[in-house]
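PROTEIN DESIGN WORKSHEET
SECTION A - STRUCTURE
LENGTH: 119
TOKENS:
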């Protein structure tokens, strides 16, 4: 899930600074009361309202798959998801699930066939 934008955070804090009740601010902007409280606390403690970085390492496998998959699909459009997963593991030595490959294909520009050609 992506963090709320800095612009929204500033608007929420501005409304709270103008005297609007925290609960009302949360309802008006469609966020939780806990978010309003958390942003006020963060501004009070750090002076800023930027979102915290997402914890954990970056997904290296996703970047590898994103670079490898378009060429693979162009050269082998009739492979199944499972076969693409096997080819990825053979080529790069990393296992990847069918769901991951499916999601990555859906994010690629252009249209890729869902049904495979008959042999």
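SECTION B - SEQUENCE
RESIDUE ASSIGNMENT:
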């Amino acid at each position: 899930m992506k963090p709320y934008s800095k612009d929204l955070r500033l608007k929420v804090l501005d409304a709270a600074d103008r005297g609007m009740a925290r609960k009302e601010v949360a309802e008006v902007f469609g966020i939780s009361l806990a978010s309003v409280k958390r942003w006020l606390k963060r501004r009070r403690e750090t002076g800023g309202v930027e979102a915290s970085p997402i914890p954990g390492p970056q997904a290296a496998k996703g970047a590898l798959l994103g670079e490898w998959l378009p060429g693979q699909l162009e050269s082998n459009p009739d492979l199944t998801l499972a076969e693409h997963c096997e080819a990825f593991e053979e080529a790069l030595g990393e296992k990847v699930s069918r769901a991951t490959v499916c999601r990555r294909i859906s994010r690629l520009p252009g249209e890729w066939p869902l049904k495979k050609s008959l042999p």
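SECTION C - NOTES
The chain has two domains: 6-46, 60-107.
The mean pLDDT is 89.
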